[in-house]
Design goal:
The protein is an alpha+beta fold. Helix content is about 35%, strand content about 25%. Strands 1, 2, 3, 4, 5, 6, 11 and 12 form an eight-stranded mixed β-sheet that branches. The longest helix has 22 residues, at about 105-125. The protein starts with 10 loop residues before the first strand and ends with a strand.
Length: about 325
């Protein structure tokens, strides 16, 4: 992609939802968008360098220079597209997605950067905003390392993602995603602890091999999970049973797993959200009270609803959706 000259003041704002991945057996493949949103505004500047301003979640804990994950994702996308970077950038983030809690904060940042890169490049080249969400999905999954969180942030709703078996004719087509709408009776409720857990730490304890019987059992429940989420919520409890990752990680988030165990013994479909340590409960009917009763006093209880739409790209300074 070639672009015309950058113009100081060119601006794009992106709003990206949080996500919960795995949902039990859907390891690295199934995710849902959650209506908790980070908003990032990127402005092209004549002054050389990168300025970053952050409020909300992560304030004081994330880099405020070119190392910021949104900036790194933005610059990497331009590199992949063959777009020369402008002299200066200013990034302003209003963060609402908790960091290090299994709610896809890194994927949210990556999707924000990739989406903004496409939007700004198209403005410079064509004079108006346009974003290829399939390309955003592909690049974000590559940068994140797995597509479950990033695809849910790109598209919202319920996403099922996989890697293409063979290269396609399109430039960006390695990660494939199907978007589905969760059943309207399902309510996602999150229990979020004060302590964080890095995804790298959580993945380091996973076994390199699993028994064939466990893989088969997990595959059956992943298929059941999709049916339960979209057509028959009465099957959510068996549909969220996992054999691949939660037990292996139990020592890393013992309190979270104890809550999952108690909720499931009460008939509520509960699982670790992503790499943890947050707990996701998929509630139908009157189950919300039981979830709240299981929340330790210092944990946050969030009731965000599913995000019906993924990343939103807003134009210029007027905030008009594109």
């Amino acid at each position: 992609m070639s672009t015309g000259p950058w113009r100081a003041g060119q601006t794009v704002t992106v709003s990206v939802p949080a996500s919960s991945a795995n949902l039990g057996p859907g390891f690295d493949s199934i995710g849902v968008g959650l209506e908790i949103r980070d908003q990032c505004t990127i402005v092209i500047r004549d002054e050389p360098g990168v300025a970053v301003h952050v409020t909300g979640e992560g304030t004081g804990a994330v880099p405020v220079d070119e190392r910021h994950l949104v900036v790194r994702s933005l610059l990497r996308t331009w590199e992949l597209l063959g777009v020369c970077r402008p002299a200066g950038l200013e990034l302003t983030c209003v963060n609402r997605v908790p960091h290090g809690r299994g709610l896809g904060s890194s994927a949210t940042a990556i999707v924000a950067g990739v989406s903004a890169a496409f939007a700004l490049a198209h403005v410079a080249n064509a004079g108006h905003l346009s974003v290829d969400l399939d390309a955003v999905n592909d690049i974000a999954a590559e940068l994140e390392g797995h597509p479950d969180n990033s695809s849910a942030s790109v598209f919202g709703g319920l996403t099922l993602s996989w890697t293409a078996d063979a290269p396609a004719a399109r430039e960006f087509a390695r990660t494939q995603t199907v978007f589905l709408r969760p059943h309207p009776s399902i309510r996602p409720i999150l229990l979020v602890p004060e302590t964080a857990l890095s995804t790298a730490t959580a993945r380091a304890v996973l076994p390199a091999r699993v028994p064939l019987r466990d893989a088969a059992a997990n595959g059956a429940r992943a298929a059941l999970l999709v049916h339960a989420l979209t057509a028959d919520p009465s099957l959510l409890l068996p549909g969220t049973r996992d054999w691949l990752h939660q037990e292996a990680r139990r020592p890393s988030y013992a309190e979270s797993m104890a809550i999952v165990d108690r909720l499931r013994s009460s008939g509520i479909a509960a699982a670790i959200s992503g790499a943890g340590p947050s707990v996701l409960a998929l509630v139908v009917g009157e189950g919300a009270g039981e979830v709240a009763a299981q929340a330790p006093s210092e944990w946050r209880l969030l009731d965000p609803g599913f995000a019906p739409q993924g990343v939103r790209v807003l134009g210029g300074n007027d905030g008009a959706p594109q």
